[in-house]
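The instructor's notes for this session suggest beginning with a concrete chain rather than abstract definitions. Hand out the sequence below and ask the class to guess, before any prediction is shown, which regions might be ordered.
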Amino acid sequence: MRIKKLNIGILLFVLVGVVPFAAAFIYALLYSFGIIGVANDGFTLQFWESVITSGTFFKSFGYSFLIALVAVAISVGGALWITLKFRQQLETRFMSFIIYLPLAVPGIVTGFFTFQLFSKGGFFARISHKLGFITEASQFPDLVNDGLAIGIIFSFLTMITPFFVLLFLNVYKNERVEELSILAQSLGANANQISRRVFLPILLKKTWVLIVLYFIFLLGAYEVPLILGQESPQMLSVLIIQEIKQYDLDKISEGYVVAVLYTLIVSVAAILLFLPKRKRAYAT
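After discussion, reveal the predicted structure:
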C-alpha cells in the first residue's frame, strides 16, 4: 500500500513538476536555435552569438548575483543575531504574529509599498520636505530604481528575514542548542565561544541548503526588480521577459537564449548542491 502511494506521488510530481518544466525548456531551446518561431528559418547560432558577444547576459547575471548575495547575507546574519538575542521574546503570541505577518505579503505588494516609501515623491521624501531637510523632490536620494539596488535589497530583506528567523528558531529547538550551550558553559566556554562553536555551526550546517535555495530564488525574482529596478543592467528575469516581449522578432529568440542559459546555470547549481548529499547518504 505504501509503495503504491509512493508511486502515485512520484507520478503526480513528474506530471505536475517535471513535464511542464521539460516542455518549456525544450520549447525555449528550439526557439533559441531558430528551429521554431515566427521569423526563424531554421537552425542557426546567430542568436547565441549575439547574446554572448553583447555581454548583456553576463552583466545582468553578475548584477543579479550580487543583489541576491547581499540580500541573503544580510538576512541570514540579521536572523542569526535576532535568534541569538531575542529568541525568548519571539516566543510570545504578539511577536510570533509580527514575524509571520510579512510572510503573507506578496512580493509585488512589497515592491509597491517600498516604492511608495522611498521614491522621490514617496512618504519619506514628503516627510523630509516638511521637516526642511530638502526643498524639492530631486534632492531626495535615489533609493528606488537606482544603480545600487537599495530598494530591491530592502524589499528582499523584509520578505526573507522573517522566514530565516522562524527557520533558525525551529532548528534551535529541534537540535536542543540551549542544552548544548549550557553543557559548553559548564565546561568553561564563555558566551562568545558558545556562539562561534555551538550556536552558529549547528544552525548554519542544518540550514545551508535552504539558504542556497533562497539565493537561487532571489536570483530569479521578477516582481520586485520589475518595480524597483533600473533600466540597465536589469535582473535576469526582467531582462528575459523584456526580450521575449520585444517587437523585434530577433530579440525574442535572444530572450529565449538568456532563459536557456539561466536555466542551465541554475540546474547545474542544483545538481552540485544535492549530489554530494546523496553520495554521502549512499556511503552511510
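Then share the key points. Residues 249-283 form the longest helix (35 residues). The radius of gyration is 23 Å.
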